[in-house]
Amino acid sequence: MISPPRRAIAYPDREVDCQEAMEPGFQAIVDCMLDVGWARGEVMRTLRRLIAADNMTQKENARVEAELAIARAMIRARK
């Protein structure tokens, strides 16, 4: 079971709590990858690439959402 944040709003050590909540699952993924034959370096590099890809996806989604909001506003302004 993953522990939720202690509060819904920002608080000191929230990221530390997130890290502690994520650690067992992270370690389980790494252990499973190593058990089937992947090298630790490969696993860590791939995790970094997955994080980078997710960041790029989030930025692109935000850009598209902003463009859609502008387009909607322009359409509303013409009515």
Automatic annotation (TrEMBL):
This is Uncharacterized protein. It comes from Mesorhizobium album. It comes from the Bacteria.
